Amino acid sequence: MISDLQGRRAIITGAAAGLGRATAELFVAQGASVVVSDLDGDGAAKVAAELGDRAVAAVCDVTSADALAATVDVAVKSFGGLDVMVNNAGVEIGKPLVETTEEEFEQLMRINVTGTFLGIKAAVPALVEAGGGSIVNMASVAGIGGAPLLGAYCASKGAVVRLTEVAAIELKAAGIRVNAVCPAFIDTAMVDRLTTPFEAAVGMPFGEVLKLKQGRIGTADEVAEMVAFLASDDASFTTGSQYVLDGGLVAGLL
Ligand SMILES: NC(=O)c1ccc[n+]([C@@H]2O[C@H](COP(=O)([O-])OP(=O)(O)OC[C@H]3O[C@@H](n4cnc5c(N)ncnc54)[C@H](O)[C@@H]3O)[C@@H](O)[C@H]2O)c1
Questions:
Q1: Residue 78 domain flag
Q2: How many CB atoms lie within 10 A of CB 6?
Q3: Is any atom of ligand 1 closer than 6 Å to the C-beta of 190?
Q4: Which residue among 142, 218, 243, 252 is least enclosed by CB atoms within 10 Å?
Q5: What's 149's domain CATH number?
Q6: What is the rounded average pLDDT of the residues 166-176?
């Protein structure tokens, strides 16, 4: 996929690891300046240091509107403004719904859904100031259909898809595009944590599930390419959409 982010100023939440980290690396390689933000401040600082002069770190818990506002300030002070907001931070719970506590459910919703909502709200004034921009929300195929053990997670990602659509419509006049990315299983620590409980739930080795449903595991770089495309002018007529990366999982009944 071709995209060019030369001169773009971006924030990526949850960028100390996994998909956020791969996205930060690609953005910088394509010419963007990036605020590498994460709850894990040391991890964010390490990634930013590796990426060089066009990356700065910010400690940011996406459940805090104040922390997100401070992260936007870092972009404005460091790079002179903001063109791209990637609401990537998210967590999983791998448990049957009836064993999930109310506190666990609410905490996951707070990070995955409220965090995305607050990320959109924090970014919009700076994006408007820049004359428009792009917001990319990390949803999941779990936002399109159900999967065992992922009840709270599926509910949260379904909400992220709907939030994306509403934000796209409401922000169209301001020249802000808003899209969601919906990956299937991608090779990150999140999937490592889910493998054992998932195998127990479906009674099948994880590798066999992957082979049957999506052919193979996806890579963080493949997801980063999609985010970079949506952030760029190559996606200039694209807003309010879901971009699925799943090796055909959602398409196939068998
Ligand atoms: N890996 C997959 O297969 C997959 C598939 C679909 C969607 N996703 C989504 O992609 C996003 C990234 O997932 P990943 O696989 O890279 O996960 P990961 O666990 O490897 O990395 C997540 C990062 O988010 C950070 N984080 C967690 N809570 C945070 C908070 N409250 N505020 C700020 N940062 C926080 C963590 O410190 C970590 O650096 C998530 O939204 C996830 O739901 C992942």
A1: yes
A2: 8
A3: yes
A4: 252
A5: 3.40.50.720
A6: 98
